[in-house]
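Support case: user asked for a sample of complex input and structure output to validate their parser. Sending the pair below.
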Amino acid sequence: MWIIFRREIGQYFASPVAYLIAFAYLLLTGLVFNNDLTSSLTIRPADPAVVPTFLSFGMVFFAPVLTMRMLAEESREGTLELLLTAPVRDSDIVFGKFLSAWFYYTVLLLLTIVYPILLLSTTPNLPDLGHFIAAYIGIWLYGGATLAVGLMFSSLTENQIVAAFLSTSALLLLYLGNLAGDIVADINLANLIRKLTLGGHFSPSFAYGLVRAEDVAYFAGIIVIMLFISIRVVESRRWR
Amino acid sequence: MSQNTSTPITITRSDIGQTFGFIGALSVLLGILGLLWQRGFTLAIVVLFFVGIIGLVLWWVISPREFVNFITGRQARYSTTAFFSTLLLLGIVVMGYIILERSALSADMTEGKRFTLSDTTLEVLNNIQREVRITGFYSPRALQQREVDDQFFRLYEQASNGFVTRNYVDPVAQPGIADDFQANDGDVFISFLGINGDVDMSTVQYVTRSSRQERDITEAISRLLLSGNYVIYFDIGLGELNVTDTSQRGISDINDVIRAYGLITQGLNLEELAASGALIPEDASAVVLARPDVDPSPQALTVLDEYMRRGGDLFIAADTQTDFMRPNSLFNDYMWQNYGLRMLDAIVVDAIASDETQLDIFSYAISDLEITRSIDPGTDPNTATKFRVARAIDVNTEPPVSNGSAIRSSENSYGETDVTTLAQSNTYTYDDGVDIPGPLTTVAWARNEANGANIVLVGDSDFLTNGQVGTPPGNASLFADSLLWMTGAGAAVTFSFETTVTGQPLIFVDSRTLDFIVVITILVMPGITLALGAIVWLRRMRR
């Protein structure tokens, strides 16, 4: 698994596209952070969850871009068949690729910790650190779940664009499902839909500084199920 | 000329069979989902299963070999195993999620412990002896708000050993229940439950909503626990301000405030009681004399004295331009001899803590007492009291009972003794040796430890009127907190929360620092990644 992981990480850092993604990511989070900072000056405390809250939407688009090529490209170029003949398990291939994407995302996330550090160095008025940590734990798990969804769709097709489109659509549904109450009249059904969504497990808890076991279980569950399906899809090539 | 060549579309038996098979499988799947959702068979579910079976049978009839291969083939075996193992994993994950959701395990990481109940709340919850219901009204549109609130409600449920339960009502789907509560979307109510387990509507308390959810809910529970246990009598026999008068000069608003605290208010006529030989009712938790025009008669004073000897509580709001508590009057002497407090014929003029004129005085020196617990103008100017033309109070330093000043004017104040000139021409100047140098007491208290009698004496009454009780809100707090202290009800609604979201510091960053942050976060950091990307790309190009 670690061989796959290292190979994928190497590909990330050797690809200009990954830097372009990082550029877009840092530019957008920087704009969001500065916008919140200027609007909160002397009026209210800085929002410790402003960047994670933005990322809860941003990952709908970032995750597919980070994962679309992972299995789809291998499949299109025929290198997946080569990998399947190598002495690695199917699960190692999927785990290695997923962990590399999550690692890359973690690096991007850690870069945004510069924002509160900058605040700390210039003013003693720091935002609520506990709240900040909870929001970052939440968006880290959230990001893991979105990457797992992206990887699963990448395993289903040979076309990167199709994989990106399918995973963006699925993630958008999982994000917008949070607003089910606006269109569903039955409150029980709306609540059930909310419980299935990514936002429903981030915005009322992590974004407020609260870490709930059920939310951790939800994101971990999404990761486990999506990776399991991805492994089965990769494995299905041996059944033919 | 181009020639169009069209490829004929061939539909095989296999295609038709597969289509039927797909329709059949989809129908069976939808039927199973419908069965799980409805928890029973409906006509639609029966139709779906029927279509499903027909579809699968047709597939078998049209292309039997393919059907058999699909069922028994290597791919089918693996697919089936994969499908059921995924289903099993999904079940395990869902089960784990449900268990964790019910256990309500959480870690409150906020610095102010925003999602942790304070000791005060736990103390209030320990006093609950009867089942309490939190009823929240949330439509599907307010689901997110419901989930945020629910995190607090379930803390109360857990900490009360089952005495507090929560229930949610959709005001759109159940407008009748919303009407009973007069509830809007997002409203929350606290009430006791009746014997049959339904909400006891006579006990319903509205929960005011602010960013301090815990305080709002705990205050509502406190009001519920206090509800009906304390009766406040307002005297009406000495020409006092009227609790039913809703004009600017009335005191109906303050009546509403203390009723909102769960206290009962009633009228009382001391003179009539004295004439009929009756006493102040046993259930009186406190008596209020709000700007009497005259002193009570000797007979009425006897009735009042008997009440005080029983350990009664008395709130007095005296004022200028009345004959109440004039120097050497019967009631003023009674108060001095028994409680070490008396009104002076002097109007407080304050050069520092005043508003439009030096006669509109703000609370300046505030003693640390229960009756002044909400008054902290240093932190929030709105918590100050404001008296418009107030009389000074003399506090005996060698009193017969415990007493003291609660609020005093500043060092740059004095008591104008020429009240007549002030009333006629609104002019005042300090006359050395004639006027009384400050600081002067405007609110005082006394407690007879032997019988538990309490008195709060205020040198102004206008602060209670509808026109002034909320400007600033500290006026209302002074009255409400005085009653809560005297009656002892304050023990149940004394809050000292650490949990306030406003406790976080505001950010003060100068424009130079702000520019530095913008440069680093928007230019330098993304710029470096872009430059690295360009280097990687150039290296690749060279290869």
